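Still learning folds. Look over my entry:

…
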Amino acid sequence: MPILNAIVHRIEKGGDAPARLLPASEPLSESEALEAMLEGLTRAYHAKNKAWGHFAERGQDDESDAASPLAMELTAYLEEQRDFVAVTRDLAGRLATLLDAHLSVSGDLMVLDTRFGDARFLTLALLHHREGFAIDDDLQPTPARQLNMTQMSLAARLDISQWQRGDSRQYLSWTRERGGKALAEGFAALLGAVEGVDAPGETRTLLKAFSDYVEQEDLPEESSREKTETLVEYASEQASRGEPITLEELSGLLDEQQPKAFYDHIRNADYGLSPEIPPDRKTLNQFKRFTGRAGGVSISFDSHLLGSSIEYDEASDRLIIKQVPKQLKEQLKGQG
């Protein structure tokens, strides 16, 4: 992944003293260490809970269509009207103000402008340190200060290519950590970001659409399980890469003989899903199918149905199905 520009600005914060910005005067030089660090940072970012959306926009009466200072500054940078060092220094200054209000720890703001294939990305992350140990050349343990990637609470990623094309409302993502609502809202405001899609909600709707599809097609247990594994594997891989779930691509993976079957099911039933969905890893991890076979009875259902249309009474060892599948209902009529 070629690095077009990279820089680190330090923000020192201790106790009640105001945060102090120690800005860099020039971008980082290319190095293998920087490349490796970018890979680690990218992996850590993709593992975070994130919001997805776009830059806020002004009304048509305003001079600019971008209400976000960052969007305006980046536009000037991309048009070579502003220097990368100056743009990121101003961003670091605003971040220092945010830290003053919500955090009491120091951090290094890393900003990277990278290209991957035909796409271009801007990644920014506030990185914190932790004390650790290393082994020196004399094979002796020695204290070592290390970056703590897992503690990356403030970070964002902009798909510059999508933003410039104007064909998406999901080109910007940013971390949304638990327990710090005011900090999260302040960070979104600093970015000038507007949440454009509910990733957990969209993922849940996709999984509901899949469950309905499996039920409608009355698939055998083995086929149902294979398709479930295919969906979760594909969606998890997309989440690991920081890429959206593409409905048409997923549909093709689920049924190579009828690659449009699942896609048509979603469109015909009007679930309101976008063609591309940002996957929510937590929702995916909770999705699975319960299956069992005994005494001529085979049962298979998705975990999210338990407690709603399906109930399990552990005391009496009974499984209660509240909504009998239509095809099964037709077979049962007149058999009582």
